[in-house]
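[job 4417] fold queue: 2 targets
>>> target A
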Amino acid sequence: MRKLLMAIATFCVGIATSAQTGKVLENEVVKSKILNMDRKYSVYLPPDFDQSQRSYPVLYLLHGSGDDHTGWVQFGEVLQIADKAIREGTATPMVIVMPDANTGKRGYNNDIEGKWLYEDFF
């Protein structure tokens, strides 16, 4: 009987844990009219995103020089960190967008001549 109860408890914990997992969509593409090019991005969606009708705050998580939109997914472990923060109540459920600024211009700023408008892209 004790083994059965332990198995049921383990099963229930597994279900509860898996139900509280967000997801990351990697290598998504958006056509930018401002930049006149396609831009890649990754996005974290909170655990209840697909079932909820609510609106979510959006956090733009920017990578450093030499990296791209996959850096926070592969090395920063955005999925694990965001899921844990939401589960523990230290963060509200949110959408996290990780854009790729790895272009010939490199960076998130508009250029001084107004020909490269990456800030406006946001």
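>>> target B
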Amino acid sequence: MENAYFSSSAILYELVKARMRGVDVRVIIPMEGNHGIMNLANVVSANTLLKYGARVYIYPGMSHVKAAIYDGWLCFGSATMDKMSFRVQREMNIASSDPEFARLAIEKVFHKDFAAAEDLTNPLPEDWKNTLARIVASQL
């Protein structure tokens, strides 16, 4: 999964649950975005996912890719997987079960971005600002 912001508590919870079931969970999170509060919140999300055994990759710079592969299904679009995208801005994603389409996305998007990103092996430093940002961002 690659997304600009990992602020949704529900999405984070489902990713952790999937990991606890043994699912290979890999996420690409940019640490430089256009919203400071989201950058701070992403640190907490990255550390949470890492704590539960997900593979977390830190993308250098800004990324607005919103895509994921779930059990062979490709999901992509304009929604950043948060309340703001789904309820206020009414953005949406589409899903495809076409294996060739998923293979192309893996080849053209995910492989390139995984190669450019740093595989996080230790938690990122965080403080009260990150925690506060995570609380606020989860409401957006």
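[job 4417] complete. Note on B: The longest strand covers residues 26-30.
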